[in-house]
Every structure is written in structure tokens, then in C-alpha cells.
Amino acid sequence: MTTVNFLSLLWGISLVIISFALLARPHNAKVLLKTTEDEKTMTLLGVIAVIAGVALIMFYNMWDTSWHSLVSLIGWIVLAKGIVILFAPKMLKKVSSLEENINNWMPFALLASTLIGCFLVYAGISF
Prior knowledge:
Layout (H helix, E strand, L loop, with lengths): L2 H22 L1 H9 L4 H21 L8 H20 L1 H9 L1 H28 L1
């Protein structure tokens, strides 16, 4: 199994499981959004995201015209998320405070996440 296939399966299976869990229990999605209120938790999550993002980028960072670029993009998104959490936590608090709006688009975002996860699992197994 190549590195890109492994990462594709890792991210794909994770996205599908997490998205299904949050779709099945919408209350858990609200609980996740409430974590933005705790500064210690957010700092820890930011550190973990930066470490994971750097590790993913160092492990696999290939850009081409195939689906492999999606795996690289995920690594960069994880790194960017960690940097935003560490350097601009107030911005995340503002976004999560718009709970009424989040309730409207959260199922669609989770459905999109599930579809991306299914594609990554398919690509990781097939190609």
C-alpha cells in the first residue's frame, strides 16, 4: 500500500465515521462548537492540529492533476486550522457564536464531508 492510499483510507474512513456520528447525534455537533469557549482546550487542539498538519505535509505533499492532491490539500487545511486556532481564537468564537446559522448548514457540511470521505475510501482502495 502506498503512502497516498494509506492516508486516503485513513482520512476517508475517519470522515465517514465522524460525519455519520455527528449526523446521528446533532447534539454532539453543538457540544463540539462549545469547545471554542474554553481557551485551554482550544490551545491544545491548535497545537495538535499544527503537529498533525506538519506531519501530514512532511509525510505526503504531492500536487498533480489527480485525486492525490486532495490528500495533500487535507494536510494543508489541518495545518491552517491549527494556525488559525493558535493565532486567531476570537475569530473562531465569533463563527461558533452564530449558532442559528450553523444549525442550518451543519447537516449539509456533514453530508459533504461524508461524500468526500466515501470518495477517499474508494480512491484509496481502487487506485
